[in-house]
């Protein structure tokens, strides 16, 4: 909505600026306004001010009432790197049309700015995660960092090209993980319901869409 867009623009163009941060604090000294929190997530992710808001969130402060976009922006901006995959695994199991669309932007932003977070998610597709977890994580990495050689090689090994309708096309970011295909798991090939989201081109770049998930296949990342 307009509040999220305004916060993103503010963070993109004035992020890290101390004077703008002071203006935000003057606008909302309690730092409980949703728009202010979104702006802090976008432009001042490592600030003491946002850390204070996150502490209140983890303590379930009754005065901190957040909608889904703000809650997930705060959660995936501030959650310690070592807890990211556990947090995402829990949200995948809760996955609904209200939850899933709000995960992509803050996760992408975190991976782009935080190399340790990127490495954490890269480890997921190397380890024995469930097929759904692998597919979701691979798609997320492709959107956040582009289809680099490492991710391309992983995709080509995991996907059985003879079963896909686009086998004559080179693997690309759009097809890095199929919506429904066969993925390797510990006990051989296993049907993959869908990954967390799919992407489609739009005039402004990527448009993110939530997909249904086979919950029987979701294990903690």
Brief description of this entry?
The protein is mostly helical and 221 residues long. It is built from 10 helices and 4 strands, in the order ααααααααααββββ.
List keywords for this structure.
about 220 residues, mainly alpha, two-stranded antiparallel sheet, 10 helices, 4 strands, about 50% helix
Mean pLDDT score, rounded? 77
Characterize the main sheet.
2 strands, antiparallel
Based on secondary structure, the structural category is: mainly alpha
If you compute it from the alpha carbons, what radius of gyration comes out, rounded to the nearest whole angstrom? 18 Å
| Strand order, largest beta sheet | 1-2
Helix content: 40-55%
Amount of beta strand: 5-15%
Question: How would you sum up the global shape?
Answer: globular
Give structural notes.
The chain is mainly alpha-helical and 221 residues long. The protein contains ten helices and four strands; from the N terminus they run ααααααααααββββ. It has a two-stranded antiparallel sheet with strand order 1-2. β1 (181-185) and β2 (188-192) form a beta hairpin. α1 (2-14) runs parallel beside α3. The protein is globular and about 55 Å long. Residues 164-194 and 198-220 have low confidence and may be disordered.
Helix-strand blueprint:
Elements lengths: L1 H13 L3 H10 L6 H10 L4 H11 L9 H11 L5 H10 L10 H10 L1 H12 L4 H15 L3 H10 L22 E5 L2 E5 L4 E6 L2 E6 L11
Antiparallel strand pairs: 1-2, 3-4
